[in-house]
Design goal:
The chain has an eight-stranded parallel sheet with strand order 1-2-3-4-5-6-7-8. It has 246 residues and is α/β, with parallel strands linked by helices. The protein has nine helices and eight strands. The radius of gyration is 17 Å and the shape is globular. The structure holds zinc ion. The site of zinc ion has 5 residues, from loops.
């Protein structure tokens, strides 16, 4: 089985010079790649990538919690989601790292809840950004009945990761696992049955531009942490990714 990059941003301008080459390298070794949407315009680009690659790049459509200047386009984005019927809604969520004022956090939570309402209504999985707001996110999720939940780039407390897995949520492990003790500890605590590989490209690769093929390196590292082999990590995470995104 081939690995999947369950979360990246290939529509970002970091890839404007060589996007086709990056996708070409991914096609050589990966099963598929999931591209998260950040606002209306990025969602459009994500959809273009999906059609240009005949679905090798899977589009998620969302409204990113740090794109506060895009919050007023939420109605347009909800319409875009209804019209394009993406396989999952993302990325959405809460970010208490970048958004620090309580009024802005309230607005962020309101937007997040509207997107969760839509996901619940449409029966779509959700892909969540939870930076420095992991606990609050999991609390809010408890109020909803959602198809599948991916906690993308999870960096919360390892105990909370375990709690999330018990609730049936999937944990996105980024290439941070190559250098972050916290992510390594999270991987150590959770089972492969709820683990997803992701790069969050272009971010999170030791300061260099990240790209989807680097999930292979993560799978090797995870195999080392969990004292298993590379194939088992790839198989488990790909089965999980197909369940949510295919
Ligand atoms: Zn992302």
């Amino acid at each position: 089985m081939r690995p999947v990059d369950s979360h990246c941003h290939l529509d970002f301008e970091n890839f404007d010079e060589d996007r086709d080459e990056v996708i070409g390298r991914a096609k050589d070794v990966l099963d598929f790649v999931v591209n998260a949407g950040s606002n209306f315009e990025h969602n459009e680009k994500s959809l273009e990538l999906e059609s240009e690659t005949d679905g090798f790049v899977v589009a998620n459509l969302g409204l990113h919690p740090t794109y506060t200047e895009s919050f007023d386009e939420i109605d347009r984005i909800k319409k875009q989601i209804r019209e394009n019927d993406p396989v999952a809604i993302g990325e959405i969520g809460l970010d208490h790292h970048h958004v620090t004022e309580s009024e802005s956090r309230d607005e962020q939570e309101k937007v997040f809840r509207e997107m969760l309402d839509l996901a619940e209504e449409l029966g779509k999985p959700v892909v969540l950004h939870t930076r420095d707001a992991e606990k609050r996110t999991v609390e809010i999720l408890g109020e909803y009945d959602l198809k599948d939940v991916m906690l993308h780039c999870f960096n919360g407390a390892p105990e909370l990761a375990e709690e999330a897995v018990e609730k049936g949520y999937f944990i996105g492990v980024t290439t941070q696992v190559l250098y972050s003790n916290r992510v390594q500890e999270i991987v150590d605590r959770i089972g492969l049955e709820k683990l997803l590989l992701e790069t969050d490209s272009p971010f999170l690769y030791r300061g260099e531009r990240n790209e989807p093929v680097n999930v292979k390196e993560s799978a090797e590292k995870i195999a080392e942490i969990k004292e298993t082999n590379y194939e088992k990590v790839v198989e488990a995470s790909t089965v999980n990714a197909r369940k949510i995104f295919r």
